[in-house]
Structures are given as structure tokens and as C-alpha cells.
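README: folding subset

This subset contains proteins for which both the sequence and a predicted C-alpha cell string are available. Records are stored as plain text. Below is the entry for DUF3048 domain-containing protein (422 residues), shown exactly as it appears on disk.
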Amino acid sequence: MEILEKKDFLENSQKEDFSLAPESSLNAGSEAKPLKKIILTVVAVFFTLAVLSAGGFFVYQKFFSNKLSSIESPLGETSSAKTNNGSNAVREFASPINGAFHTKEEYENYKDRRPLAVMVNNHIDARPQFGISYADIVYEAVAEGGITRLMPIFHSTDAGKVGPVRSARVHFIDLAAEYYSWYAHWGGAYAPVFPDGTKDYSETNPKADAYQHINDVSLASLDQQWLGDTAYYRDTSRNVALEHTGYTSTNALWKEAPNRYPEEGWTKFIKFRIWKFKDDAVLSERGFVTDIKFNFWEDPNFEVIWKYNKDTNDYSRYQGGVKWVDAENKKDIAAKGVVVQFTVETSANDKKNHLLYDIVGAGPAKIFMDGKVINATWSKAAIRERALYYDEEGEEIAFNRGQIWVEIVPARSADSLSFIAQ
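--- output ---
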């Protein structure tokens, strides 16, 4: 399905004729002096330009000001922002994922729905992505060949356009499972089936078979192969390869999920372990650690830099030397906290060069918040258990409220991590 073209309101709207009046009418039947004619003509021209400018501004405000910020989705969905309800709106309901406070109206909208994890393409031809800034938390890890994918998890906020959407991988399934989330993806790694019903595990190692792992974990999959154009579509306006053109929206996925899983209980929010949260450090107590740099493999297009903004107490994301902006709303991608989690990476030794990550287990991590770095360890006891983070004293770390990024970096690339302590 291609993106629908917008109606050209300027060509179809009626235009007023602001042509100048005849000289005779300006002179009211008398013979005007040449200078007077020139002055009146100049005044008329300026008047005409002013009217045309005002008319053009009106047309822009009415038809374009809210429409040119992003390509519209044919699903008819829009992104949501936090409701203002006046400047004194009370925000006292904390997100169970990132601790950000919301109004009662916002809370009532999201409290009963399952979180939604979406596999998002991070190939250079897929950038900038849509909808990332609306996620509560974002995970990044290598799929194959040093090329990372993202998995934003949405719960408290809607995104009208998310993507490009890509296929499932087993380590992302392990991450999504701890939220009891819906898992949205466009296909997945799988072992082809021979005519006799057996599978070709030389093509895809059974440990890397995403569809089998989804069944083993009982994760609620919202695969494009099943939902089709009820929740997914293609936008080919960027003129890139087909695998970089698939998109969805959070509302469309939440709407279609019950049709895929009509059985009682599937759509309900299931409680999971909530992290500890805290308020931002006051300005005088914030540190000076910035330019957090690391890479997953060696490709410079995937080297990440997080730059600390002391005044706003957040981190701006750069990758491949480019500052990240959400294509949906043109806002900078900024995290309140960044987790760099070192994990064992092994090859699946199959023809598709799939990778395996020890998502369940324990290991070292660095956590960046408030302009400081925390030497930490991570621990995830089981697939359905939350990963928890502890400081050097063994105390569970409390995160700042707001979007959090978790970077799953191969342990062998730990030496690539550097930062500046000003």
C-alpha cells in the first residue's frame, strides 16, 4: 500500500482577484498629476502584496501548518502528546516502564493495555526513523553483520507512524518478554521446512529461529505476515530498498491485537517488575561526563555518541556522525538515562549468519545519568523477568524519569567505550 497523496488545497481553493483598479477610478474623473499617479500606484501595489501575504498565511495555517510535519499514515492514525489540560494539570501517575509522570486522563488511556514492542530498522537507508521519541524505553542491539536494530517499547504514548519495521530476532524477543508485551515485527528469522516436514537448520540454527522462540516463550506476536494491511503499510517515498519501507502505528496495532488474540486475558495488562525511579539531580549536583562513545562492531555508521546537556539533564543521540531527530515530529532524540550493557555474543553458525546474545544471565554495565557514570552490573534471572541494575555496593539503581535507552553491546567491544569527564 502506497502513501496517499495529500490534496493540493492551493490549486483547488478559490483565489480572489486583487488586480489594481483602473487609473480613471483612482483619479475620480479628474486629471491627476504624474507624481500623484505614481504614489497611488505604489500604494496600491503594497496594499495588494499585503492582502496576498495575509491570504497566503491564512491558507497555510488552515491547511498546512499541522500537516507538513510528517508524512501521513494511510491507517489514519496520529501521534499523541501529553495532554496539557491547562498549565496546572496534575501529573501524579507514573509510567511503570520509565517512571515519567502523567495526568489522570493519560493514565486512564494506557493503564489497561499491554506495552507494545516494535522491531525498527536501523540500516542507514532507514534513517531517520519515525516515532522513536514517543517510546517509553528503547533497546538497541546488533541483528547481523554489525548492523543494529531498535526495539522501542510504547505504553504511555501513541505514535502515528512507527518504522521502518523489520523482522524478529530471538534476543529482542527475550527483551520484549519481560514486559509481557505485544511484539510487532515484519517477518522473522526462521528455518525453512523441507517437503517431508523437517526443518533446514543449516539455514537457520534452531536457537536463532524467531518463530519457534515466540512459540516457546508464548509471546503475543503481531506479525505483519498475519495482520497485513490492517496494521501495516509501505511508504516508498524515500526511494530505498523494499525492506526499508514498512511502517505501522501504535493505535492500529493495539486495535488489531484482539482480533489476532481473541481469547480472554490476552489483551490485559500483566504486571511486571517495576524499576526504581528518582527525580533529576539539581543543577549544582550534576556532573560533567559527556561524549559517551562506543560501537557494536567496527562499522562507523553504527558508532554511537551520546552528548550530555547539563541544563536539560538529558543526552542527545548521534550515530554515524549524525544527530538523531524523530522524522515523525522533528524532535531531537534525547534520553534521560543511557545503559550500556555488555553481553556475550556468539555466532549461530548457520548460513544466514545469525547471532545469539546472552540476554538472560548477568554481566557488567555502565549507566549514564545526571552527567555522571555509574559502574554497574546487570542481572536477568529468566526470560520473563526484568533485567535489574545494581551499583558497586549492590544497591538497585534508581533511574531518572523519562525515556531510557538500553544499548546491548558485545562484551568483546567493551574497549570501544569512552567518555569525556570535563
